[in-house]
Amino acid sequence: MNIPIPKSNQGVEPIRGAESGHNRLPLDAEPLLTPEFIQSLANQMYQSTPESLILPSSPTGNSVPTDFPMRPSAPSGSSPVNSGSPLSPSDEEGLTAIARSLYDQMQSADLDPRLGKALKQLGSPERSSNLAQPTHSESKATAQGTTSPLYPAANQPSFYFLQDPSSASQLSPTVVDTRGLTEAAVSRTTLPNLDLPNLELTRQAQFTEFPQTDLSSATQAPEVQNLRSPGRASSSRNGTAGDSGIFEVEVIRRDFPILHQQVNGRPLIWFDNAATTQKPYAVIDSLSRFYERDNSNIHRAAHTLAARATDSYESAREKVQRFLGAGDASEIVFVRGTTEAINLVTQSYGRKFLRAGDEIILSTLEHHANIVPWQMLAQETGAVLKVIPINDRGEILMDEYSRLLGPRTRFVAVTQVSNSLGTILPVAEITHLAHRHGAKVLIDGAQAVSHMPVDVQAIDCDFYVFSGHKLFAPSGIGVLYAKAELLEAMPPWQGGGSMIRHVTFEETVYSDPPAKFEAGTPNIADAVGLGAAIDYITRLGLSNIERYEHNLTDYATEQLSHIPGLRLIGTAAHKVSVVSFVLDGIPTEQVGQRLAQEGIAVRAGHHCAQPSLRHFGLTMSVRPSLAFYNTQGEVDRLVEVIKTLRYR
């Protein structure tokens, strides 16, 4: 069915998604939920689904009832209110009753919880106080008094509901937190026969200025050339980076509630992204939705919640498969994080296939999580570790790597991106050379997946691992990709429920991969959150993220390099947004503490990468690490504070 668009948007040509088929409005024409629109929505919903959707009778002069009786469905084409007449937009109590009834009945549908919450608030007798402020945090635009009674301000969240009006003719919009939704989330908010995406639940930040653009599915990473909103000037300081025109950062930042707070009386600047990334509303709300509606164990129960939880969990696995370019979802194993994934490989594949004298090659740039498990395996099996050296820019020496390879090389385990220096390693070339010697290859992608597109089949690696919390997803969830034939050949690492087909006291028959490696109750909700994070960044486009962060990193490097006494650590030609440094004569801990006093979060320490720092004669460094929601203005503030520390 086709819900009419509110008057303020009539005549706007919708944009149609190639796969979803949902109508989408251009983002400079955002619909408002006026009384007329709610009336039309309610009437058409009732007419389209008369057997399942029961709306209340319109009260006349009485307070809103707390419960509404079910009533027989109306004939097709009739009004959902009693007496057969359409609901008047001025009938505030009738609108309220409908909103409450819609909320109650939509609980059984796959509705985004924020829209449901808004309907619930609209239908509450206390809606005036409930809706007086934005749901999550007061928007910058509201604080500056830039809201319009008819249209959202350019720098405000893009969805509105009504406050309690003093009269039907004088309405005031109130921000409701429907920020951070992706196109995939829109498709999940659609009730039967209801074209709900006309409500434009998708964020401004994700699609702007591409009339009739193909909004392809989350299986692809769109290469959107310009994500700048129409009619807005580019800002080199707080908006786009340089003249790249890739992101409206201040718009995107509204998806991340944690960024909008003060720490020690200063606005928070989050430059600790290499340690963990912050989470958009799309991810936060996916967790709430799961626990509110779908919480259940998976796979073995016959009831509805188990089926929904299973579908969500396995859907997340398929999203990871597409995100990494894996050949099949069965090649994706959910674990707690990168560390557990590497330990799984060492303890399963390594114990079975490595013997005394076999050689394992690592690089100087490895995180401890890709050193210690291999040391433990070498001590247990008698295997030998060899290490690829690096130069003074923090780049591995490929000639030395080639010389390390030999007939006893059985395994190569390297990071794709150094967490301490930001160096990008040529993992496809590393893999190709290892395979020429018959060695298997594991790539640690923990620091790569949030910065660049990854294709495990193009790399041809045998194993690839990463952690969700580095990818704007929850902590406690991670991924092991492995080629199907390797998973078949590897024994289980842990035993328990879910990973078996048949158990007797004499013998156990194990399940096929990936279940064979997922013993016990998995981290279902956080896997769902990982899927939501993948949806979110896929919609932004990892190639777009990569370009924006490259420009921002160049800017940060240039500004920091002008500070006397500051030494940048890691200056590789190819690197991601890590700008580690030390200051002459000032302890690393003191620098970190001073920045923290100004609300700037950086990592100050050895970063679980002591061998790489020792190459530079260091035990610690200060590590600002940037993400696509960071700005040049934040970099300027970092530089300003460092200068005060230097010269005080």
Task: Summarize the model shown.
This protein is an alpha/beta fold and 648 residues long. Residues 1-33, 48-90, 107-114 and 123-245 have low confidence and may be disordered.
List the helices and strands and how they pair.
Layout: E1 15-16, E2 23-24, H1 35-48, H2 92-106, H3 113-122, H4 127-130, H5 140-143, E3 160-162, E4 173-175, H6 183-188, H7 249-252, E5 262-263, E6 266-267, E7 269-270, H8 281-294, H9 304-324, E8 332-335, H10 338-353, E9 359-363, H11 372-381, E10 384-388, H12 398-404, E11 409-415, H13 427-436, E12 440-444, H14 456-459, E13 463-467, E14 478-482, H15 484-489, E15 500-503, E16 508-510, H16 524-540, H17 542-561, E17 566-569, E18 580-583, H18 588-597, E19 600-601, E20 603-605, H19 610-614, E21 621-623, H20 632-647
Parallel strand pairs: 7-19, 9-10, 9-11, 11-12, 12-13
Antiparallel strand pairs: 1-2, 3-4, 5-6, 8-14, 13-14, 15-16, 17-18, 20-21
Q: How does this structure look, described?
A:
With 648 residues, the protein is of the alpha/beta class. The chain is built from 20 helices and 21 strands. The strands form eight sheets. Strands 8-14-13-12-11-9-10 form a seven-stranded mixed beta sheet, sandwiched between helices. Strands 1-2 form a two-stranded antiparallel sheet. A two-stranded antiparallel ribbon has the order 3-4. Strand 5 and strand 6 form a beta hairpin. The protein is globular, with a radius of gyration of 27 Å. The N terminus is likely disordered.
